Amino acid sequence: MVNGIRFENVEKIFYTPSGEEVHALNGVDLEIEEGDFVCFIGPSGCGKSTLLRILAGLDTPTKGSVYLGGDLVTKPGHDRGLVFQDPNLFPWLNIRDNVAFALKTRHIYKENKAAVGEMIDMVGLTGFEKSYPHQLSGGMCQRAAIARALVGKPKALLLDEPLGALDAFTRMNMQDELLRIHKKEKMTMVMVTHDVDEAVYLANKIVVMSARPAKIEEIINVTLSYPRDRNNSEFISYRSRILKVLDFAGKEKEPEYNI
Length: 259
Ligand SMILES: Nc1ncnc2c1ncn2[C@@H]1O[C@H](COP(=O)(O)OP(=O)(O)OP(=O)(O)O)[C@@H](O)[C@H]1O
Ligand SMILES: [Mg+2]
Hints:
Strand content: 15-25%
Order of helices and strands: EEEHEEEHHHEHEHEEH
Shape: globular
CATH superfamily of the domain at 1-79 and 155-165 and 187-253: P-loop containing nucleotide triphosphate hydrolases
Number of helices: 7
Number of strands: 10
Radius of gyration: 19 Å
Structural class: alpha/beta
Bound molecules: adenosine-5'-triphosphate, magnesium ion
Helix content: 25-40%
Strand order of the largest sheet: 6-7-8-3-9-10
CATH architecture of the domain at 1-79 and 155-165 and 187-253: 3-Layer(aba) Sandwich
Oligomer: single chain
Largest sheet: 6 strands, mixed
CATH topology of the domain at 1-79 and 155-165 and 187-253: Rossmann fold
């Protein structure tokens, strides 16, 4: 558990501009082992991104603590790489410079120059180093964002719906890319997704969260070997189990509002 992650009784209360409380997280306790591929799944607005942002050090918990490798998380750090739904590349920099950007600002570019090419190669963008973001497809930009997050060799890669904006085929290809990177780099990956199949395809641990204030409803350890077959009966039974926990199995939901 050298570089493992621990959430201890994490609670988060936000305040709206009118001063009302929004209770986002309630008593979240979770252990993530080094090398785990963890997916957070749960209803929209339940607090998944908040939990990931607290781990990233972009937000602070109202109560409780988060540890990475035994160290209390208090602020963002190079030990965590971040990838969001929007690749957020700098449009005025080419792909190589985008990937190298953080190394340059940290003044560690010279000694890590080779890593830039390696990461670009690992995400399959060799030949596009000199291209600008607007010259690449959405999936290619997201690969560049992943290379940028990995180049500083973080202990953990945190991903918030990184494939959410991609078409179905690109998304499935990118899922394989993530598994390949996970296998090669052996790093901890923590990913928020809305997609039940994606979670079962990728994760060895799925954290199913309840509606707000989010708490952990169930932790499902997926013991299927990789590569996983989406049509395999065990795969389908994991999917059914998650849908059941999320209360979507075999029933029509009442609309939340009437038009
Ligand atoms: N800065 C903020 N100020 C006030 N409320 C916030 C803030 N950030 C998040 N919230 C609220 O906290 C709750 C959880 O938000 P969060 O973004 O974590 O949800 P989520 O599970 O990631 O949702 P989605 O699946 O739609 O991305 C929401 O009700 C949201 O409105
Ligand atoms: Mg979110």
